[in-house]
Write a structure and sequence with these properties.
The complex is a heterodimer of chains A (435) and B (182). Chain A is an alpha/beta fold and 435 residues long. Chain A has three domains: 253 residues, Rossmann fold (3-Layer(aba) Sandwich); 68 residues, Orthogonal Bundle (Arc Repressor Mutant, subunit A), CATH 1.10.10; 85 residues, Ubiquitin-like 2 activating enzyme e1b. Chain:  B, domain 3 (Structural Genomics Hypothetical 15.5 Kd Protein In mrcA-pckA Intergenic Region, Chain A, Roll). Helix content of chain A is 35%, strand content 16%. In chain A, the strands form two sheets. In chain A, strands 3-2-1-4-5-6-7-8 form an eight-stranded mixed sheet, sandwiched between helices. Chain A starts with a helix and ends with a strand. The relative contact order of chain A is 0.10. By secondary structure, chain B is α+β, with helices and mostly antiparallel strands. A four-stranded antiparallel sheet of chain B has the order 1-2-3-4, with no helix packed on it. A two-stranded antiparallel ribbon of chain B has the order 5-6. The longest helix of chain B is centred in the C-terminal third of the chain and has 13 residues. In chain B, 39% of the residues are buried. The chains are: A alpha/beta (435), B alpha+beta (182). Chains A and B meet through helix 7, helix 8, helix 9, strand 10 and helix 14 of A and helix 1, helix 2 and strand 1 of B. The structure holds zinc ion. The site of zinc ion has 8 residues of chain A, from loops. Chain B: One of its GO terms (molecular function) is NEDD8 conjugating enzyme activity. Chain B: It is an enzyme of class 2 (transferase).
């Protein structure tokens, strides 16, 4: 049977949605994998109502923004603090020569909005850390296309911390894409429910490093000479200048220092752009790998928003897709297990009612008596303050005076206190509730 | 998403915190450093110093070896830990200018776990054990101070004399060193 016979209005002809003809056809009927109560009207509405946050407007970000706009998403925010470099132009296809030096987020947003009328993209030229929870609370889904592990960890911890049992909207799916050469991954996280970025930290290989003594004594490759200039020589000769890897004068200095070193050891191949690459730890980016990973991130977002098909990251199912294109083509999708001792999602903060008039010392004693913890040698802090540390000795001496102080003086209602103890592999986190 | 939320409600333990707060949360790096500090075994030869006790990511470690060639010296190392810890190793430097085959005149330290062999499962204790070991067993195979490494390799007695005179604030081959004796 022709689908058109069933849903003539959905074929796009004679409707006011010719652009979405094929997408509407996918969404117009329940299928084998849709929810039992699938309502064909909801998906398109969901797409229009969804607010998507895209973090990063670089290689992955350009692809992700384009994909969302072309899938009918109309409300998108993008955050990126970087400016466009000439070396981005080969793959970050929303940028042109004339855009070099301008903000990636703004130029990408302008380009996509011009190309896809009706799509509204707000660009933010800042760090993700500059935005607060109220800002993140407005989105349906957060999609990361980043090359920084630090930024991912921050976003992840923020979304985990936002989950509030009283408010279903506080659970924001986090979709994360990453590529390195011909390899990449996409993963979906339901904060506090499924394995998070911090649980998965071991999936990121630490940056390969050459022993310091090799750099200092027997360099063998041009990169060794550059690392030597960067790690050893800069501190020796320009100690008082903070190295800025975006400052051409600084890169030139490193380049010339590395070049002289290379000549001394008879090593060829040190160039300015290699210096830039080594110092900024630029991972080779391949446009097509970005396209594959971005496409998979956007498809998962599409499925989550429309509930038109099962998606990656459904609790207790696969949440991690690896793409390996460097030796043949191999993809593997699996469930990365949530870790009980994950410092971010493993032991979620519990409410801890305390009397603001009681002392920190009384709180420490009560920890020793709590059935779940029985903490004998606790170290405890807030984000800002070291409250009391049993060890090391110097910190114990510096903080023991706090034991006499009233909780009301040191803490504010709702503040998080983290407690560690050598007898426990997990940490305990509490939200202080003054009573 | 409603389905996911109902799963969430089933999964949730009853005593979890309700309502979120705008307050900053203890970061994953802070939490890990706090844990590592609770497990440090400093013994009698090491002490820590925190210039700002609220900032546990920056501190110094003072090492006073009680045996070996560097016995009775006082050596200070600065630890600078980034928010990306433990994905990244701590940055460790020796504050004094010392004569040691694996530490250069700027205080850079050649210790495999501070660089090429760092893994997030390693903790701060592993690092301080490594530093301690460098003073007990300086090695000529990983030289950062080539002259010191050559001395150690070729003439252990001369190396020993050089260590003592450098620790006393003297000079070796025209290079003067900081006095680090107790
Ligand atoms: Zn986790």
């Amino acid at each position: 049977m022709q689908p058109e016979a069933l849903a003539p209005a959905m074929n796009g002809e004679g409707t006011d949605r010719p652009r979405w003809k094929y997408m509407d056809r996918i969404l117009s009927r329940p299928g084998g994998y849709t929810d039992e109560d699938y309502d064909p009207d909801t998906p398109a509405n969901n797409i229009e109502a969804a607010k998507i946050l895209v973090i990063g407007a670089g290689g992955l970000g350009c692809e992700i923004l384009k994909n969302f706009a072309l899938s009918g998403f109309k409300n998108i925010d993008v955050i990126d603090m970087d400016t466009i470099d000439v070396s981005n132009l080969n793959r970050q296809f929303l940028f042109r020569q004339k855009d070099v030096g301008k903000s990636k987020a703004s130029v990408a947003a302008e380009f996509v909005m011009k190309r896809v009328p009706g799509c509204k993209i707000n660009a933010h030229i800042c760090k993700i850390q500059d935005m607060d929870e109220d800002y993140y609370m407005q989105f349906t889904i957060v999609v990361c296309g980043l090359d920084s592990i630090e930024a991912r960890r921050w976003m992840n911890a923020t979304l985990v911390g936002m989950v509030d049992m009283e408010n279903p909207d506080s659970l924001k799916p986090l979709i994360d894409g990453g590529t390195e050469g011909f390899k990449g991954q996409s993963r979906v996280i339901f904060p506090t429910m499924t394995s998070c970025i911090e649980c998965q930290l071991d999936m990121h290989a630490p940056r390969a490093a050459v022993p310091l003594c090799t750099l200092a004594t027997i360099p063998r490759q041009p990169q060794h000479c550059i690392e030597w200039a960067h790690i050893i020589k800069w501190d020796e000769e320009r100690k008082d200048i903070q190295l800025d890897t975006d400052d051409p004068e600084h890169i030139t200095w490193l380049y010339q220092t590395a070049l002289a070193r290379a000549q001394e050891f008879g090593i060829a191949g040190v160039t300015y752009s290699m210096t830039q690459g080594v110092v900024k730890n630029i991972i080779p980016a391949i446009a097509s790998t970005n396209a594959i990973i971005a496409a998979s991130c956007c498809n998962e977002a599409f499925k989550i928003v429309t509930s038109s098909a099962p998606f990656l990251g459904n609790p207790e199912q696969n949440n991690y897709m690896l793409y390996t294109g460097d030796s043949g083509v191999y993809t593997y999708t699996f469930e990365h297990q949530k870790k009980d001792d994950c410092p971010v999602c493993g032991n979620l903060p519990k409410d801890l009612p305390v009397n603001p008039q009681s002392t920190l010392g009384e709180l420490v004693e009560s920890f020793a008596e709590r059935p779940e913890s029985q903490l004998k040698k606790p170290n405890m802090r807030t984000e800002e303050k070291t409250l009391f540390y049993s060890a090391p000795e110097s910190l114990r001496q510096q903080t023991e005076g706090n034991l006499k102080r009233k909780l009301g003086e040191m803490l504010v209602d709702g503040e998080e206190v983290a407690v560690s103890d050598p007898a426990f592999t997990i940490d305990f986190r509490y939200k202080i509730r003054f009573s | 998403m409603l389905k996911i939320w109902s799963m969430k409600q089933q999964q949730q333990k009853s005593d979890a915190a309700s309502g979120q707060s705008k307050k900053k949360k203890v970061t994953a790096a802070q939490l890990r450093v706090q844990k590592d500090l609770s497990e440090l075994s400093l013994g009698t030869t090491m002490t820590t110093h925190f210039p700002n006790p609220d900032d546990i990511l920056n501190f110094t470690l003072t090492l006073t070896p009680d045996e070996g060639l560097y016995k009775s010296g006082i050596f200070t190392f600065t630890f600078a830990i980034s928010q990306n810890f433990p994905h990244e190793p701590p940055k460790v430097k020796c504050k004094e200018k010392i004569y040691h085959p694996n530490i250069d005149l700027e205080g850079n330290v050649c210790l495999n776990i501070l660089r090429e062999d760092w893994k997030p499962v390693l903790n701060l204790n592993a690092v301080i054990v490594g530093l301690q070991f460098l003073f007990l067993e300086p090695n000529a195979q990983d030289p950062l101070n080539k002259d010191a490494a050559n001395d150690l390799q070729q003439d252990r007695d001369r190396f020993r004399r050089n260590v003592r005179s450098a620790m006393g604030g003297g000079s070796v081959r025209g290079e003067s060193f900081d006095r680090v004796m107790k």
